[in-house]
Prior knowledge:
The complex is a heterodimer.
Chain A: H1 6-16, H2 21-37, H3 42-52, H4 55-66, H5 71-81, H6 84-96, H7 101-109, H8 113-125, H9 131-159, H10 172-181, H11 188-203, H12 211-232
Helix pairs in contact in A: 1-9, 2-3, 2-4, 2-9, 3-9, 4-5, 6-8, 8-9, 11-12
Chain B: H1 4-23, H2 36-42, H3 45-59, H4 70-86, H5 89-106
Helix pairs in contact in B: 4-5
Amino acid sequence: MAITTPKSAFKKGFLDSTPFVLVVVPFAMLFGLLATEAGLSVFEALTFSLVVIAGAAQFTALQLMTENAPTLVIIISALAVNLRMAMYSASLTPWIGAAPFWQRAIAAYFTVDQSYLVAVAEYERQPQMTIPQRMGYFFGTVTVIAPLWYAFTLVGALLGTSVPESWALDFALPLAFLAMIAPMFRTLAHLVAALVAVGVSLLCVGVPYSLGLIIAGMAGMIAGAWVELRRTGQGPAP
Amino acid sequence: MTDKTALWTIIIAIGLGSFLLRFVFTGLVGNRRMPAWLLRHLRYTAVAILPALVAPQVLWPAATGGAPDPARLAAAVVTFTVALITKSMLPALFAGASTLYGLLYLL
C-alpha cells in the first residue's frame, strides 16, 4: 500500500502493528492479574499501566515490590530496564526530530518496543516519507498497542484470571520481535550488529538491573557502525 | 507489600523517569543536526537491542525455569527464517506458533 497522506500513513501504521494484538493482550492481562495479587487495587494497576506504559519495567517493579525492596531500589531498577527507551529516542530523532514539539512529546510517551520497531522499519523502507506522514504512521502503530495495554490491564485486574500456562504465551513476545527484526537485515553491517549484540547479551546475562542489555546494544551498534564505515569508507546520509 | 505512599511514589517516579528517557533525544535534540558518527551508530539500534533482548529469552526461557527448551528454540528459528524469506510478520508468526505448539504437543 502506497502512503500518500498522513491519514493513509496512520492507517498503514495501524495495520502494520495489528499482529502485536496477540502479544499485548496476554501480557497486559498478566500484569493486571499479578498487580492485584501483589495487593494493588484495580485503579492502581490501571494507573500504573497508564503512567508508565512499559511492560518489562512494570513487571520488574511489581516483582521487587512483592519482595519488599526499598522504594529507591525499585525505581532505579525499573528505570534501568527502561534505559533502552533513551536509545530508541535517539534512533527516532533523525526521522521525526523536525516534527512540532507537542507531537514529539506525545510520541515520546508512546515510545515502546513495538511502536519503535514497526515505525523505524517503515522509515528505513520508505525514506521519502514526509514528517507528517512519519508522525501519522507512528501514531497509527500506537493506536493498536496502547489502548489494548490499558484495557487488558484492567481486564486482568478485574477478572483476576490469566491465560493458562500451557498456551506458552510467554513466548509470544520473543517470536513477535524475531518476526519483526528479520526483514531489517539488509546489509552485512546489520547482520554483524545483531550477532555481536546477541553474543554480548548472552555473556552479560548475569549483569544486574538488565544493564547487560544496554552493554550488548551498544556493542552491537559499534560493530554495525564499524562495518559500515569499513565497507563504504564514508557513511551514507541517514 | 509496599505501603500506599510508597506505591504512588514508585508509579509516579517510574512514569516520569520513563518519559524523560523517551523524550531526551526526540524532544530535546529535535531538529538539531547530530554528528555523522552518532547517526551511523543509531542506524543499528533496532537490529542490536531487540535481538539482544530476545536471545536470552530464547535460550533460557523463564517458563521452563531457564532450561533450554527444544520447542521454543525451534519456534524461534522457524519464525526468524520465515520472516527473513517472506519479509512479512504474520506468516512468520503463524509458522513459529505452529512449530511451538506442534513440538510442545509432541515432546
